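Tutorial, part two.
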Amino acid sequence: MRLQNKTIIITGSCTGIGKAIAQRCVAEGAQVLIHGLEPDLGQSLVNELGPNNAALHIEDLTNPDAPQHLVDTAITAFGKLDAIVNNAAMVVASNLQTTDLDFFRKMLEVNTLAPFALIKAALPHLTATKGNILNIGSVNAWSGEPNLLPYSVSKGALMTLTRNLGDTLMRENHVRVNQINPGWVLTENEAQRKRDHGLADNWYADLPAVYAPSGRILWPQEIAAAAIYWLADESGPISGQVVDLEQHPFIGRNPPKDTSTIPAPPN
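Running the prediction step on this input gives:
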């Protein structure tokens, strides 16, 4: 098992990509702290994984004390901390005209500052175990959709944080920091968002090739499979790296002339 006896905090892991990462981590021998805002879904996942393998902490990450609460809960439950996965994110569509400063600050607070705060809180324990940090970003970090302005900026800032700390913490603490940028992923929340936008329940079954050359978009389990490499010792001393996980080159592609009927990806 690639994560035998490792303890990992995974934010935003009651659903979606975070849930898939938690399931895969336990399958690889780890113990995980599940986090999110949905106590029923979180408890259901803990029950699935088993109380010896998982614990649950429900709290809004914008609470100033939340990062320390997460670390304390993991240490109390499992005795040490080997890694954190900053996966929790706020995904809301908005552009220059529809974004005000309060909303922009909220997006940065959740998507960029909360990961920074958790890294600071966890660092003493990660230093002790020579552990690692995995940030979950987005391909939109490179520029982003017009209607995902603050979201894209927040993920771009997270990417810079990863590269900066990936150098600093490796030199000073022997703690690795890396990031994966998923493309368009079929999570439960994404499926529901598109239904809320008026699309059919099976909207993802027939997508234009410009967005899904393979005929489908990514699954959370595929992101989780990639995450294990960065959380495991087999990635060695590699730090400060950002890897895009998409089925096509995201930058420089030519969209179709008529995009009016295409549901825009959120990630």
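Residues 7-245 form a domain with the Rossmann fold fold (CATH 3.40.50.720). In part three we will examine how such features are distributed along the chain.
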